[in-house]
Amino acid sequence: MNILEGITQVGAIINTTRDVVEALKPRPKPVPLQADPGAAEAYKCAVRARFLDELNRASARFIELRDLDGNGSLDPIELEMGQEAFARLDTNGDGEISLSELNQACLANPNVLNGDNPIVNV
To answer: Reduced to 3 states, what is the DSSP secondary structure of residue 97?
Structure first.
């Protein structure tokens, strides 16, 4: 073994030792969310934001798959839905279900697009 190899091995041993010492250091215990109302509220906001982001992506994908005319919204034919049920979802009355309207409908009733849901089968 030459000096360069020895130095390299010593460096590797020092790095490994540093990693082990770091892993053995006591970690502060996380503060339970109940003990810190601010942290609990921040957590709820983060979860809600992630949920809304996922809902938006899923709704956009749903529209993309159903949007036969490529206008970015859905009509009763594209949704395969009766006029009465469609009118309940079309909150602005423009004859199209936008991404926003679809998100609102899903928030109000998570099963709104389920085939067993009476609102869809009207």
So the answer is: strand
CATH code at position 85:
1.10.238
**Entry pTM:** 0.61
pLDDT tens track for 76-90: 999 888 888 889 889
Q: How many domains would you assign to the chain?
A: 1
The pLDDT tens digits for 56-79 are 888 899 899 999 999 999 999 998
Domain residues for the domain of 94 are 39-122
What's the token pair of residue 100?
């926003």
Please give the Cα distance from 114 to 91 (Å, whole number). 19
DSSP alpha helices (H): ranges in 25-122?
37-66, 76-79, 83-89, 99-108
**Residue 19 lies inside a defined structural domain of this protein:** no
Indicate whether 101 pLDDT > 70. yes
Is 23 part of a structural domain of the chain?
no
Q: Pull the structure tokens for residue 51.
A: 């949920």
The verdict on residue 51 lying in a domain is yes
